[in-house]
Write a structure and sequence with these properties.
Elements: E1 7-9, H1 19-25, E2 34-41, E3 47-51, H2 64-75, E4 82-87, E5 90-91, E6 96-98, E7 101-104, H3 125-133, E8 138-139, E9 143-146, H4 161-164, E10 181-187, E11 196-201, E12 208-215, E13 221-226, E14 232-239, E15 246-251, H5 255-269, E16 273-274, E17 279-280, H6 281-284, E18 293-299, H7 303-313, H8 316-331, H9 336-349, H10 371-384, H11 388-393, E19 418-424, E20 427-435, E21 441-449, H12 455-472
Parallel strand pairs: 6-8, 7-9, 8-16, 9-17, 12-14
Antiparallel strand pairs: 1-3, 2-3, 2-21, 4-7, 4-18, 5-6, 10-11, 10-15, 13-14, 19-20, 20-21
């Protein structure tokens, strides 16, 4: 297998200490696989390991390291998203509003997210209190969510149909809510039986999904097929047998409309009479609503906090939002295509080549990056990035947290290696930082595509190679 690789290995230790690399190169099960591996000294830039480092491959979620680097450098760690509530028209002394309740979306991807419970109060009840404090008791119009902050193309075209309906395939909208996802709870019985839905959380996200699931085995192979802005879909595949509470995560098909309905229902339940039905700017085909009386504004966590969660648990929605936010901030539009152009210009300014971005999260298989380019970006962030501490802290600690909780658990990695992982079918990748026993700070990127063996085998090779570099370089 060694003949298949262009190999540069500047290892200062004896050959006996490169057993992990030898085992990797001689693994005949990987003969049809593709790799792009690179390790370099952060301070000197010296190449430590180079295996097809300039070959562009599907990266999966380590692509988020590019998106978050560009976002924190170009937007700043204190960048925030704002959402406003207000009304149009006139309000008389009797509490009659001749106009509409307006929710002005500002692209906040974490609005009412269970991951950020302290930022939005007791939603939606705090909002209702704010609206009623104005004296509004009757509304001649309706609740309208202005979701025009970004474009109306929530899902990148390169995403698979089987991804878009699931929680990790939640799209980007001008007004988001609940991470644009909800949980479907099931109770399952013996193999071959139909799982029974017991609960939808949050309840107001319930939609019409045909249940074609079957209980079988002990692994989750259930998928939800639905499209943005639709109102139905179906569930198919298998979920584990004999479960008292098994959960599938689904993407909300129209988050702005769910937002509008949530406020509408809460107001009605609190005694406010509303004549019209809840709706959105997209549905009504109206221009952005800029003339309204503001009742309250709600500010998101700082971008640095969002990025910390984004990279720790690999939230695709947050990454895709940052791409659109870059375009909104610099060009005033909020599209994926223009946001990716800004990221590409950022990479070009650093001299980084061979990166082909189809989205900001890595979920698309149309993405292709190379290990050398990403490692060069990591080195740049360490040496010249204005906000490196935020960036570094957003990466999970090996063997302890986030997507690295169950990997790199050897003592040699403890308190040492911080990295972002990436995984999808036949793709396994890692990129991040570590320090060798001699005190040399390193940046690395490992990408593997199209391997037939279990991903654990690939990760074991990665661990062995990095362990030897840490111990002997």
């Amino acid at each position: 297998m060694k003949k298949l690789f262009l190999l540069i290995f500047l290892f200062t230790a004896k050959a006996a200490f490169s057993q992990g690399l030898d085992n990797f190169l001689s693994d005949t099960t990987l003969i049809h696989s593709s790799f792009s591996l690179y390790v370099a000294d952060v301070e000197t830039g010296q190449t430590v390991l180079d295996i097809y480092s300039e070959k562009s491959l599907v990266p999966a979620s380590i692509l988020k390291l590019i998106t978050t680097a560009a976002a924190i450098e170009l937007l700043g760690p204190d960048h925030v998203f704002n959402t406003a509530v207000g009304y149009t028209g006139t309000l008389n002394k009797a509490g009659m509003l001749k106009g509409d309740i307006i929710i002005k979306g500002g692209g906040d991807p974490v609005f009412a997210s269970p991951r950020f419970p302290f930022y939005y109060g007791d939603f939606p009840y705090r909002w209702i209190d704010e609206i009623k404090r104005t004296g509004i008791r009757k509304v001649s119009g309706r609740v309208i969510v202005d979701d025009s902050y970004y474009d109306y193309n929530p899902v990148p075209s390169g995403w698979l149909w089987e991804d878009a309906g699931n929680y990790y395939g939640a799209g980007v909208y001008g007004a988001s809510i609940y991470d644009n996802s909800y949980d479907i709870h099931f109770i399952t019985s013996s193999a071959g039986t139909k799982p029974v839905i017991t609960e939808i959380v949050p309840e107001d996200c319930s939609t019409s999904l045909e249940n074609n699931l079957v209980a079988d085995g002990n692994t989750d192979n259930g998928y939800i097929f639905s499209s943005p802005y639709g109102n139905n879909g179906w569930m198919t595949g298998t979920i584990p047998v004999n479960q008292e509470d098994f959960v599938l995560g689904a993407s909300i098909q129209d988050p702005p409309m769910i937002f509008a309905k949530s406020i509408d229902v809460a107001l009605r339940n609190d005694g406010v009479k509303i004549k019209g039905s809840p709706t959105t700017a997209r549905i009504e085909k109206i221009r952005p609503i800029n003339e309204y009386k503001t009742v309250a504004k709600y500010t998101s966590p700082f971008l640095s906090e969002i990025i910390d969660t984004l990279n720790h648990i690999s939230v695709n929605l947050y990454a895709e939002t940052l791409v659109k936010e870059l375009d909104k901030h610099y060009k005033g539009k909020g599209t994926l295509q223009n946001g990716l152009k800004i990221i590409n210009l950022y990479l070009d300014s650093l001299g980084i080549k061979g990166m082909y971005l189809a989205d900001g999260s890595g979920l698309s298989r149309a993405n292709a990056i190379n290990a050398k380019g990403l490692t060069e970006l990591l080195i740049h962030m360490k040496n010249n990035g204005r906000y490196f501490d935020y960036y570094l802290n957003s990466l999970p600690d090996a063997g302890k947290e986030g997507t690295l909780k169950n990997w790199f658990r050897d003592d040699v990695f403890a308190g040492n290696l911080k990295a972002k992982s990436g995984s999808m079918t036949r793709v396994r990748s890692y990129a991040g930082y570590f320090t060798s026993k001699s005190g040399r700070q390193m940046a690395f990127t490992f990408i593997a595509n199209d391997f037939p063996s279990p991903s654990a085998n690939i990760v074991a090779h990665y661990e062995n190679i990095l362990r030897e570099i840490i111990l002997y370089y």
